[in-house]
Design goal:
With 407 residues, the protein is an alpha+beta fold. The protein has helices spanning 5-24, 43-54, 141-144, 178-182, 185-190, 210-215, 223-226, 231-234, 269-274, 337-370, 384-405, and strands at residues 34-37, 59-63, 72-78, 81-87, 93-97, 113-116, 119-121, 128-130, 135-137, 156-157, 159-162, 165-168, 198-207, 245-252, 255-261, 290-294, 298-303, 306-316, 319-328, 376-379. β7 (119-121) and β8 form a beta hairpin. α2 (43-54) packs across α11. The structure holds FE2/S2 (inorganic) cluster.
Length: 407
């Protein structure tokens, strides 16, 4: 399976940068340490961030692989909005508020499920909706009384599907041009060939505040320490030196979407230096790994061979739910028992590492913030990804305040 010219170019330029850093003992670095007031993790800030960011920007809520066939659907709740994402018979993906137009019950059994159906029958009084959201039938219509069914379809949300990913704006009437919002990240995502992925399994994990949770996905500085017994060992690192490359994409001067590449994600510096012996045309994605983040809530540690997509959904100022979705271009229905077993072990392992190491740390940080010990948190010059993330949060909050002030 040949990689695209774009991917090849990107890998060559990332490896060249990483080699320079590995030889010099440096890493991508910002001009200064970023200081974030602890107040920005308060319940008041959280409420404002939800309005400014999660209710206004397009959110990557589903992979195309999760709604592959006509009639495939995914129900997911974001804040107080139950969302239903469905692929119609016309192959178009649509998103709706998952609330029956009779008296508001979800038309799926739960607010968190994936499945396949030719239509949806509301469990309360059996009104039936089509995959395009139209109200098809009303139970006992003569007794119910006269209604215009054409006005009682599900309430649709802005939804766009690109290169294997699906974005939804969860506020009715809000629509954002996703291609413009992604900028150059669209090419990055295209290189993952996510439209060929299959979902092999999922886990759901709980953590602290969404930004504390996200911070851990935005730097590799912690890997030799927090993950000393796990990731660091698996990758057979021989040195704590880490090289991380930060690149950003999108409408802001610093993002808000990012790519972090480097040895810290899987290749030790010695292996990286060995790549000097190879011609640049031989530098491919088996030597180099990059993690992409989609603002505000997605981390993609995957390439065209598959990997892990983490979807962080804030639920309260001090709580966040992460959906871990494991993907692979192999159709799991064709897998041997050994392959299935290996994948189950991988899914369990990654849930355990993230829960026991990253997310237990997030709860500890939350306690630390409550204690009043710190007035600000520090993000080092080597933590450029986290710096960019917090700049993006601040930007969208400021923009929201300005819009509100301007009426
Ligand atoms: S609430 Fe759905 S049919 Fe009554």
């Amino acid at each position: 399976m040949a990689q695209s010219q774009y991917v090849q170019q990107q890998i060559q330029s990332m490896v060249a940068r990483a080699l320079k850093h590995a030889e010099a003992g440096t890493t991508d670095s910002t001009d200064e340490i970023y200081r974030l007031p602890v107040e920005s993790y308060s319940p008041r800030s959280w409420e404002e961030e939800m309005d400014a960011i999660f209710r206004r920007l397009p959110l990557m809520l589903a992979l195309s692989a999760e709604v592959r066939e006509p009639g495939s659907y995914k129900a997911i709740k974001v804040l107080d909005v139950p969302v239903l994402i469905v692929r119609g018979e016309d192959l178009r993906v649509r998103a709706f508020i998952n609330a029956c137009t009779h008296r508001g019950r979800a038309i799926t059994q739960t607010h968190d499920e994936v499945g396949h159906s030719k239509g949806f029958t509301c469990p309360y009084h059996a009104w039936r909706f089509g995959t395009a959201g139209q109200l098809l039938t009303v139970a006992d219509p003569r007794k119910f009384g006269e209604i215009d069914r054409s006005l009682l379809g599900l309430k649709e949300l802005h939804c766009e599907e690109h290169v294997g990913f699906i974005w939804v704006c969860i506020t009715r009437g809000v629509s954002v041009d996703v291609k413009n919002y992604l900028g150059g990240m669209l090419n990055e995502l295209g290189g993952l060939e996510a439209d060929k992925w299959f979902v092999h399994g999922r886990s759901q994990l709980e953590s602290a505040n969404w930004k504390i949770t996200h911070d851990g996905y935005l730097e590799s500085y912690h890997i030799p320490f927090l993950h000393r017994q796990t990731l660091y060992e698996f990758w057979k690192r021989e040195s704590a030196t880490s090289v991380s490359l930060y690149d950003h994409y999108g409408p802001l001067p610093w993002g808000p979407h990012q790519r972090m590449g480097g040895n810290a994600w899987g290749n030790d510096p010695k292996l990286m230096l060995k790549m000097k012996d190879l011609a640049p045309e031989q530098w491919d994605d088996k030597y180099f790994h990059a993690v992409r983040t989609l603002f505000p809530h997605i981390s993609i540690s995957a390439d065209r061979h598959g990997g892990l997509v983490s979807q962080m959904i804030p639920v309260a100022p001090d709580r966040c739910i992460t959906n871990q979705i494991h993907v692979n271009p192999r159709d799991p229905s064709q897998d041997s028992p050994e392959q299935l077993q290996a994948m189950q072990e991988r899914i369990a392992l990654y849930a355990k590492i993230v829960r026991d190491e990253d997310y237990s740390t997030s709860f500890s940080i939350q306690e630390g913030l409550r204690s009043g010990a710190n007035t600000e948190l520090l993000f080092g010059r080597n933590e450029g990804g986290a710096q960019n993330f917090h700049r993006s949060v601040a930007h969208y909050v400021q923009e929201f305040r300005a819009c509100r002030a301007g009426g």
